[in-house]
Design a protein that fits this description.
The protein has about 60 residues and is an alpha+beta fold. It has one domain. It is about 15% helix and about 20% strand. The chain is built from 1 helix and 2 strands, in the order ββα. Strands 1-2 form a two-stranded antiparallel sheet. The model has no long low-confidence stretch (mean pLDDT about 85).
Length: about 60
């Protein structure tokens, strides 16, 4: 997972721990008077697709 400026890798793709970050501003206005804490998790494409398939989703094509 890249840093906010997409200049380097900040988190390992296979990170299994929660990622906690604090963001200031908004996507549209980075200078907005807003501070928000977020907690995120990485999920590999294989994890997502496999769980969708196991729960009844039929994948007809994937490119």
């Amino acid at each position: 997972m890249s840093d906010d400026d997409f200049e380097g890798i900040r988190y390992n793709y296979f990170n299994e721990k929660p990622i906690a970050e604090t963001y200031e501003g908004t996507y549209a206005d980075q200078s907005a008077d807003l501070v928000k804490d977020y907690v995120m998790w990485n999920h590999s494409l294989a994890d997502v697709l496999q769980n969708l398939i196991l729960n009844g989703m039929e994948v007809l094509q994937f490119k």
